[in-house]
Amino acid sequence: MSRRLQGKIAFVTGAGSGIGAATARRFAEEGACVVLCGRNLAPLEAVAAVIRDAGGQAQACVADVSDEQAIVAAIEATAKHHGRLDILVNNAMAYSFGPVDSTSTQAWHSNFATTVDGTFWATRTAMALMKAQGGGGAIVNLASICGLFGTPWMAGYSAAKAAVINFSRSVASEGASSRIRCNVVVPGVIDTPATADMLANASTRHNTEKLIPLRRVGLAQEVANAILFLASDEASYITGACLPVDGGRGAELYTVLE
After folding, report:
1. Other beta carbons less than 10 A from residue 133's beta carbon
2. Distance between CA atoms of 251 and 258, rounded to whole angstroms?
3. Which residues are tagged catalytic?
4. What percent of the chain is predicted at pLDDT more than 70?
5. 224: burial class by Cβ within 10 Å (0-12, 13-18, 19+)?
6. Architecture of domain 9-190+219-242 in CATH?
7. How is the chain split into domains, by residue range?
């Protein structure tokens, strides 16, 4: 490995599984000290143990991203303990599923509490810390292809992810003078615990893959690689970017089915 993040302190939300766990592992492989944040200790500790067994540095941090006081305290404690914060990855999300005309107000708001509010609280806190330590830092937010295109029965989730994309552009604009970069990764259909039930059905998986130009769903590791790039100094002149990791799904107006 090139140790692209050697000595960096990174905070990753939703790190107990899927894309967050894969990102934490990749960061540690590249030399970062990773703080894994999530609501449940057991999966965080399991990922952290794998990292430590491989010679990396990782610690679990239990905090609900939808709880302002909890996520702010977790990030501030990380910076205080390690002396700084270099990288923030806002990966945690929540979603509801159903048609618009029967979506309750509570269900609608549930899409925003973690995905938008949590991303805002974490970003606001990280930016203040990064500025206080002299500037410089990288924030990578996770959106979704649903935030770029209308998605039936996922209006709340789609709206929340669209908000993350434009919020990130504003953060990039404001943070630039302090050398704080902010970029967005936009995954398509990725094989994670969140999609496991859908992809377990062979017919559904086949029909889903037919709509993707690369003809397969993505892997969490592939999204983690994109996050790693944007968090590293290799992307030092990239901010405000929106990087799709979707197998080409968003590049086509329509798909010719085979």
Report:
1. 14
2. 18
3. 157
4. 98
5. buried
6. 3-Layer(aba) Sandwich (3.40)
7. 9-190+219-242
